[in-house]
Design brief:
Elements (H helix, E strand, L loop, with lengths): L1 H19 L3 E5 L4 E5 L3 E6 L2 E6 L5 E7 L4 E6 L2 E6 L6 E2 L11 E4 L7 E4 L4 E4 L7 E4 L6 E7 L9 E6 L2 E6 L6 E2 L9 E4 L7 E4 L3 E5 L7 E5 L5 E7 L3 E6 L4 E5 L4 E4 L2
């Protein structure tokens, strides 16, 4: 009987941890605001204060700001939903999706009204000219942990798409011509981020280390040990700061000047 009670308690606590996990973080440079996603709500951190915004009443998985940080796209177990940040209501954006369990969403940084949604084996794209999502690619394969778009130079289109996985990082021009693995970087990467002010600079976080590259992912260096092991998401906030969300529900900031981590939530 005691054993059964312990099993039930373990499952209950696991459910709580999952519900409170920070699944995604995104930074509004114009508003100097951090948006952090859990399964059911969005946390908004600005000027040392924290407020909350309700989600679309679905189990959310990822979020991305778009249209110059005025709107939010979330991926959920029931598809994609859009919110104007000045309003409470959410609009469904599922037309064209063959699969509605969306694990990843991200924004084209050059064309802020071009969006991407992805599962583990499908990448969709939505532009203002499309009536719905368009199936673009099957992704790089492996167990994907994160996606991002950057405007690093020399793409055959508007930029590059990077995907992290449990075995490293892969990238493709956003024409989805072909995926290439980042050489000599076979880490279990939990999340990746990009420095908009320096388009060839990227960050990758593992359970022990924060890495960076300044030459477009050709070479990577260790940047800092990580005081947590369960990162789920990573975002650059200006030139000097990064934010990381964790599965245990905390948010950490990293100061590049002092090379120090600080728990902010």
């Amino acid at each position: 009987m005691t054993r059964c009670l312990l099993c039930t308690l373990t499952l209950f606590l696991s459910g709580i941890a999952s519900a409170n996990s920070i699944l995604s973080v995104d930074w509004s440079n114009s508003g100097q605001t951090l948006y952090a996603l859990t399964e059911q709500k969005i946390l908004i951190l600005k000027d040392g204060s924290i407020s909350e915004k309700s989600g679309p009443n679905k189990v959310m998985r990822d979020a991305t700001l778009f249209e110059n940080d005025t709107k939010l796209l979330v991926g959920s177990d029931n598809g994609a939903f859009v919110n104007d940040l000045t309003m409470d209501s959410w609009a469904e954006r599922n037309q064209g999706l063959e699969k509605h369990a969306i694990s990843f969403v991200f924004t084209n940084v050059e064309l802020q009204n071009v969006l991407y949604a992805a599962t583990q084996d499908t990448v969709y794209k939505l532009t203002p000219d499309d009536s719905g999502w368009v199936n673009m690619d099957i992704g790089p394969g492996g167990e994907i942990t994160d996606y991002l778009h950057s405007n690093m130079p020399d793409s055959m289109d508007t930029g590059w798409i990077f995907a992290s996985s449990t075995k490293g990082i892969a990238f493709t021009a956003d024409c989805f011509c072909f995926w290439r693995d980042v050489r000599n970087f076979s880490h279990n990467v939990q999340a990746i981020a990009y420095q908009p002010e320096s388009p060839s600079t990227y960050y990758a976080i593992t359970e022990k280390m924060l890495f960076t590259t300044t030459d477009g992912a050709r070479t990577w260096t260790e940047m800092s040990n990580v005081p947590f092991s369960d990162a789920t998401s990573l975002v650059a906030a200006g030139l000097n700061n990064l934010f990381a969300g964790t599965e245990s529900g905390s948010i950490w900031s990293f100061d590049r000047n002092s090379n120090e981590w600080k728990k902010v939530y």
